[in-house]
Amino acid sequence: MVAAPAAVPLPATRSSWTTGALMIAAVVLVGLNLRAGIASAAPLFHDLENLLGYGTLVASLLPTIPVLCFAFAGAGTAWLVKHTGLERAIGIALLLLTLGLAVRAFESTWLLLAGTVLGMCGLAICNVAMPSFIREHHPQRTASMTATYTVTMSVGATSAAALSVPVAASLGSPTLGLAAWAIPAALALLVFLPLAIAGSRKTGPAGPHVSPWPMLATRKGLLFTSMFGVQALLVYSLLSWLPHILISRGSDPATAGFMLGLVQAISIPTVLLLLWMASKPRLLRPAFMLTCGAAVAGFLALLLLPVEFSVVPSVLTGLGLGIFPLLMLMISRSGNNAAETTALSTLAQSVGYLIAALGPFGLGLLQGVLGSWTVPLVILVGVTLLQIFLGYRISGSGRPPSEPLDPETVGPR
């Protein structure tokens, strides 16, 4: 007798489709939030300073907090992932982000600082963990999902920068304008919650833990860390101070915020172009040189052109932001497993962001002392030249540096 066919495959297929769609939605929503909390704050720094009355030190510290959190909280991400699981770690990060952004609703300098620290620690964990999440759950679509992740990141930042001042005006307070961005963070948390719960229930032997710090002694570790630090210094100096630079030259806050949004908007098609180029081994180095060269031209234009032509540096620096997705793609493809990818991501981002903190904080203090943005912008032009050199080296002959990981130094621990 022939047995009747079982009806198991259909539910399983539906479940698979549902899980796949949820994982794609998770990548999109996390990406939308990863820069919104930062980009929404920069256009409001001037109003916040007037409202709360803090001085130059706090004004320089505020845009530096995210980068410092990315350095120190990011360094602990590998430990958190080991003890909670990858999905649960990202869920915890989204909870921290939501709470931190919500706390900034109160008109208090200390709560503004505390909320920024809490929220940016959440972003730091996501920054490090998401390349591993993409590698683990989308192994056949690493490039396309990295493109999705970085494009939605730019969309979120563009929206936050352009809408930050109007939202704050409609709510009647810059602090409420900051806190409004807790809403999309809460939505991302709700969507990710089923994945976090399912991830916490996984059983079986724990995956290998790879220590990131010995990798700093390798050529790959040094190159990725140096490149990440330099590009992050440029990006977060721009995100933190571009509106302030334009306002100090006579622009109104809404226009300055729009220009920051334009930087992010230009980066969206740039990401698609550069990731397409990176998929062709012979075009990887030209992709790096294109975006690094645009950064040099953009910061030179910001230094030399009058504020009436601020659209020019905005477009050029937007092209320069394409370096980030190229690096994230190379990190996602590096290593033999998700643990090694997490280790390299942890190293590059924790040490790299520590280097990058010199940008927003140091340049803010320097401007406060000199009363001008000329010298800080000259320094940033010099950093863009260093980025060209590192981009040329890291792009190699069309693929990431292939130095093998030494199992004696970075093996399971």
Q: What is the name of the CATH class?
A: Mainly Alpha
Put simply, the count of helices is 20
Low-confidence stretches: 1-14, 397-413
Calculate Rg over CA atoms.
21 Å
Keywords: Membrane, Transmembrane, Transmembrane helix
Protein name: Cyanate transporter
Organism: Paeniglutamicibacter gangotriensis Lz1y
Transmembrane segments: 57-81, 88-106, 112-134, 146-172, 178-200, 221-242, 254-275, 287-305, 311-331, 343-367, 373-392
Please outline the helices and strands:
Layout: H1 9-33, H2 36-39, H3 45-52, H4 56-61, H5 65-75, H6 77-84, H7 86-103, H8 109-137, H9 142-171, H10 174-179, H11 182-200, H12 219-248, H13 253-278, H14 284-304, H15 311-320, H16 323-333, H17 338-356, H18 358-370, H19 374-394, H20 407-410
Give an overview in words.
Keywords: Membrane, Transmembrane, Transmembrane helix. The chain crosses the membrane at residues 57-81, 88-106, 112-134, 146-172, 178-200, 221-242, 254-275, 287-305, 311-331, 343-367, 373-392. The chain has 20 helices and no strands. Helix 12 packs antiparallel against helix 13 and helix 13 (253-278) packs parallel to helix 15. Mean pLDDT is 82; it is low at 1-14 and 397-413. It has one domain (18-200, 207-400): Up-down Bundle (Growth Hormone, Chain: A), CATH 1.20.1250.20. The radius of gyration is 21 Å and the shape is globular. Helices cover 77% and strands 0% of the residues. It has helices at residues 9-33, 36-39, 45-52, 56-61, 65-75, 77-84, 86-103, 109-137, 142-171, 174-179, 182-200, 219-248, 253-278, 284-304, 311-320, 323-333, 338-356, 358-370, 374-394, 407-410. The protein is an all-alpha fold and 413 residues long.
